Amino acid sequence: MSTDLGTLRGLAHLARLEFDATREQQMLGDLNNILDFVAQLEGLDTTGVEPLVHLSQEVNVLRDDEARNTVSHQDGLRNAPRKDSDYFRVPKVLE
User: Fold this and answer.
1) What digits encode the pLDDT tens for the residues 7-48?
2) What family does the Swiss-Prot or TrEMBL record give for this protein (predicted)?
3) Which one of 7, 20, 32, 62 is most buried, counting C-beta atoms within 10 A?
4) Which of 8, 37, 42, 3 is nearest to 24 (CA)?
5) Which H helix or E strand runs over 49?
6) Residue 18: closest CA among 6, 9, 30, 26
7) With the C-alpha atoms ordered 33, 34, 35, 36, is the resulting torsion angle positive or negative?
């Protein structure tokens, strides 16, 4: 399977990419190499091969999430650039 310059230009337009002539030829070669590799993969016999769920056998050990206050309300407001009694003041978001 190979693509031509027209197909590459169409893909570049959809992806909002711009190439000069030299780079365009290089990208065309790279794209054809990728498509050739995918064609090789399509030719492999995968009957009896279980699908991968994870790429490695490593198990991620995570700690339990525990809700706790690490910064008091007053300490959090102390570093605020603008505050109004007990609240942060931020620029208006909606008109």
Assistant:
1) 999 999 999 999 898 999 999 999 999 999 999 999 999 899
2) Belongs to the GatC family.
3) 32
4) 8
5) none
6) 9
7) positive
Place of tokens 């999430």: 65
Structure tokens at 17: 């990419």
Per the structure block, which two tokens stand in for 95? 């008109």
pLDDT of residue 23: 94
- Give the tokens for residue 82: 């603008």
Please count the CA atoms within 13 angstroms of the CA of 28 that sit on its side-chain side: 16
CB atoms within 10 A of CB 8: 19
What residue type is 67 in one-letter code? A
**pTM listed for this prediction:** 0.51
What is the distance between the alpha carbons of residues 76 and 95, in angstroms, rounded to a whole number?
28
